[in-house]
């Protein structure tokens, strides 16, 4: 798959089928994530992958899902089958913002290339979750969680229409994207 096709195909999926995420796929995504760019090549990020039922249940309980969708629910059999957590290692750096986004996108695009679906999610009480999973908050800052699995819903981008995503009549997600003319401040090329 061409890179630009993978970027356009990557959608945030919030409902998954019951199929497991193979350990080899998780390992491949972790390997791709480590190629993120970082200031001074300090490489301050660490990653953790979880696919066990207990860990997935604990992580699921701490996530924010589909803020724009009133009454959005995920049935137990539609929950993600694996997660990758991105941590900042405080002993290496104090600022992780750019690196975290780059690593997350590598994981998301890698998932597309492996035929998986993913969703990058907000966390409720990230320090508490990190502690529950055995990662000391004084050493590691939990920055991001990526849910993984086989998609049980469709998602498509749509030009214009604001920024609030919504479900169509078939339960698929429609995600408005600002037109190029609204996102480019200046284009100075010959």
Briefly say what this structure is.
With 190 residues, the protein is α+β, with helices and mostly antiparallel strands. The chain has six helices and eight strands. The mean pLDDT is 91.
Describe this structure as you would to a colleague.
- With 190 residues, the protein is α+β, with helices and mostly antiparallel strands.
- It is built from six helices and eight strands.
- The protein has helices spanning 3-9, 23-33, 53-60, 97-113, 126-132, 180-183; strands spanning 45-50, 63-64, 82-89, 117-123, 140-149, 155-159, 166-167, 173-177.
- A five-stranded antiparallel sheet has the order 1-3-5-4-2, with helices on both faces.
- A hairpin with a 5-residue loop joins strand 7 (166-167) and strand 8.
- The chain is globular.
- It starts with a helix and ends in a 7-residue tail after the last helix.
- The mean pLDDT is 91.
Write the layout of secondary structure elements.
Elements: H1 3-9, H2 23-33, E1 45-50, H3 53-60, E2 63-64, E3 82-89, H4 97-113, E4 117-123, H5 126-132, E5 140-149, E6 155-159, E7 166-167, E8 173-177, H6 180-183
Parallel strand pairs: 6-8
Antiparallel strand pairs: 1-3, 2-4, 3-5, 4-5, 7-8
Helix pairs in contact: 2-4
In whole angstroms, the N-to-C terminal distance is 31 Å
Report the biggest beta sheet as strand number plus sense, adding barrel if it closes. Answer: 5 strands, antiparallel
Mean pLDDT: 91
How many helices in DSSP terms?
A: 6
Give the helix proportion (percent range). Answer: 25-40%
Q: Strand-and-helix sequence, N→C? A: HHEHEEHEHEEEEH
Strand content: 15-25%
Shape category: globular
- What is the C-alpha radius of gyration, as a whole number of Å? 17 Å
Name the poorly predicted regions: none
Widest sheet: strand order? 1-3-5-4-2
Structural class: alpha+beta
The beta-strand count equals 8
């Amino acid at each position: 798959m061409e890179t630009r096709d993978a970027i356009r195909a990557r959608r945030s999926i919030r409902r998954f089928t019951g199929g497991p995420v193979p350990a080899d796929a998780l390992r491949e995504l972790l390997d791709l994530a480590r190629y993120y760019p970082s200031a001074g090549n300090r490489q301050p990020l660490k990653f953790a992958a979880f696919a066990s039922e207990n860990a997935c249940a604990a992580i699921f309980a701490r996530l924010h899902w589909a803020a724009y969708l009133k009454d959005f629910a995920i049935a137990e059999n539609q929950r993600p089958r694996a997660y990758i957590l991105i941590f900042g290692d405080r002993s290496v750096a104090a600022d992780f913002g750019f690196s975290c986004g780059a690593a997350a996108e590598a994981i998301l695009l890698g998932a597309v290339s492996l035929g998986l679906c993913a969703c990058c999610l907000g966390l409720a009480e990230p320090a508490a979750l990190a502690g529950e999973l055995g990662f000391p908050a004084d050493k590691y800052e939990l920055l991001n969680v990526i849910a993984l699995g086989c998609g049980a819903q469709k998602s498509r981008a749509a030009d214009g229409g604001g920024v609030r995503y919504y479900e169509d009549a078939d339960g698929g997600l429609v995600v408005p994207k600002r037109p190029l003319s609204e996102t480019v401040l200046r284009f100075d090329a010959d």
